[in-house]
Specification:
Layout: H1 2-19, H2 21-27, H3 32-36, E1 60-66, H4 88-104, E2 106-112, H5 120-128, E3 136-138, H6 145-150, H7 172-177, E4 197-202, H8 203-206, H9 210-213, H10 216-221, H11 227-234, E5 238-239, E6 251-257, H12 260-268, E7 274-276, E8 282-284, H13 286-289, H14 291-305, E9 310-313, E10 328-334, H15 335-340, E11 348-351, E12 365-366, E13 372-373, H16 381-393, H17 396-410, H18 415-426, E14 428-429, H19 432-435, H20 443-449, H21 451-457, H22 463-481
Parallel strand pairs: 1-2, 1-3, 6-9, 6-10, 12-14
Antiparallel strand pairs: 3-13, 4-10, 4-11, 5-6, 7-8
Length: 486
């Protein structure tokens, strides 16, 4: 139990270090006494750390408009009647809302904007009418995001004096990396809980193969958890139930949505989607920096997805098969989905996406977070800035509940899984090619971002050909986007 607790606390610390590289260096230098007297809560004999925002009484509402596909809202803003008795996460989220209400005299509410195909229209309508109905937008991962920036619908977060972007609860460095022409439209802080894809596996099912194939956790530790090893594991199981039909009643080595999760292989193998050149200009990197590698990766994934050992599904209302069925060895899933697996009888282990090969320096975990943005129509900028700052400031108990209680004691019941989650948080990265891929106004960008899923699911041409067909229009859009405001 003690070992489990230590590893879980290491997981939390590692994630907080990820959010702020500057504090990551100093955190390791703290003595045990110093570490016990820092943070946002009061400890005996220590001075309580105070927020930079002074107490105020705005006497108003702050309304967050969110995309429901990306934000399970109870993890962010929860109403009293939705709280589950004894649920630590619910209590901490609700407590954060009450703390902000008491500190600023602001009542926070949330408005569901619908799914990724729905949420952009009402926010555009509201801003177009000059309506101050929403003070924050919690976006889809990319759908509609850069289109709103191009149409000058979102404010530069660098203009808000309240935001302490160098604090450990903000990721100011990442916001600057994703800045467009020096303007920071994307907000990242402790409020934005990490959402990424992982490899989940059925521990009991894998036990049959462990002696011959090796301990999967050791493969990760030894950097032998590569694409080659992943494919070997994913093709271990292929069993028909006897009816001669390959469907959801059979047993497979891998089951997955053959769409967005496949993109994480590209970034995980060290092939960024978009990079900036020495002049700070963005360009699509795969066919420039890694042409042979991306073509080989596309072929590997395409061939894997067409193996009988893989059950895949595409877009729309189609049959699906999940690890909870007990007939799937591995499944690609997001961290929010991972939480639900502990309600099932299947014992689930957690692994990062694989390396390209053992020579790769480290694992790379692709972030699939939405971002927080502020509409240009907000009238009380001081209030909005103060609330955004305090949402981040008061998030430490929430992040602890999420990473320790939900993804800790609930999911990572084994020390090995806690160790894997720690690695996953530590290696997260955001790719501007994902954040700024707005398929509503630049289909070419979407086609390159989703080139591998398109090939697998929609039978479009292989990567090199598909890239050539779409790269010119995509680059024109990137050039336009990153010259915004010049």
């Amino acid at each position: 139990m003690k070992l489990r607790f230590v590893r879980l606390m290491s997981l939390i610390l590692a994630f907080l270090m990820l959010l702020s590289p500057a504090t990551a260096c100093s955190a390791g230098e703290e003595t045990e006494t110093e570490a016990a007297t820092t943070g946002n809560t009061e400890t005996e004999g220590a001075t309580e750390k105070q927020p930079s925002v002074q107490k105020k009484d705005y006497g108003t509402e702050f309304t967050a408009f969110y995309c429901e596909d990306i934000f399970p809202i109870d993890y962010y803003l929860i109403e009293e009647d939705r709280r589950k008795p004894g649920n630590d996460m619910d209590d901490r989220v609700y407590e954060r809302m009450l703390n902000i209400q008491e500190h600023l005299g602001v009542e926070i509410t949330a408005v569901n904007g619908g799914g990724y195909l729905e949420y952009v229209a009402p926010i555009r309508t509201s801003i177009g009418a000059g309506d101050d109905a929403y003070q924050m937008v919690m976006t889809h991962v990319h759908w509609g995001v850069s289109g709103m920036f191009l149409d000058n619908l979102m404010k530069d977060l660098g203009d808000f004096d309240s935001l302490q972007l160098d604090a450990d609860y903000w990721n100011g460095a990442l916001m600057e990396d994703l800045a467009i022409n020096g303007r920071m439209y994307c907000g990242y802080n402790d409020y934005m809980l990490a959402n990424c894809n992982v490899v989940a596996f059925n521990k009991d099912m894998y036990a049959e193969y462990a002696a011959a194939t090796g301990d999967l956790y050791d493969h990760v530790r030894n950097k032998t958890w590569t694409m080659e090893k992943f494919i070997e594991v994913a093709t271990l199981v292929s069993q028909d139930n006897g009816d001669g039909k390959w469907d959801t009643e059979d047993t497979y080595g891998l089951a997955t949505w053959a769409w967005a999760p496949l993109i994480s292989f590209q970034v995980g193998c060290g092939i960024p989607i978009v990079q900036k050149d020495s002049e700070g200009e963005p360009y699509y990197s795969p066919m420039v920096d890694n042409p042979d590698k991306i073509v080989e990766l596309d072929e590997m994934i395409y061939n894997l997805m067409n193996q009988r050992s893989v059950f895949k599904w595409g877009l729309g209302d189609v049959p699906q098969l999940h690890i909870r069925s007990g007939r799937v060895l591995c499944e690609l899933m997001g961290t929010f989905t991972l939480v639900s697996t502990k309600e099932e009888e299947v014992k689930v282990g957690v692994l990062p996406y694989p390396l390209w090969d053992s020579k790769q320096e480290d694992y790379i975990t692709m972030s699939w977070n939405g971002v927080m943005c502020v509409p240009t129509t907000v009238r009380n900028e001081d209030m909005v800035g103060d609330v955004l700052e305090m949402l981040a400031w008061y998030s430490e108990p929430v992040t602890t509940a999420f990473y320790e209680t939900l993804l800790g004691s609930k999911v990572a019941e084994a020390p090995e899984d806690a160790e894997m989650l720690e690695l996953i948080w530590r290696t997260q990265t955001a790719d501007m090619g994902l954040i700024y891929c707005d398929s509503t106004v630049a289909p070419g960008m979407d086609h390159i971002l989703y080139a591998i899923p398109h090939h697998v699911t929609l039978n479009t041409p292989a990567y090199a050909t598909y890239f050539k067909q779409n790269s010119r229009s995509a680059q024109r859009y990137l050039d336009k986007l990153f010259r915004l405001g010049e």
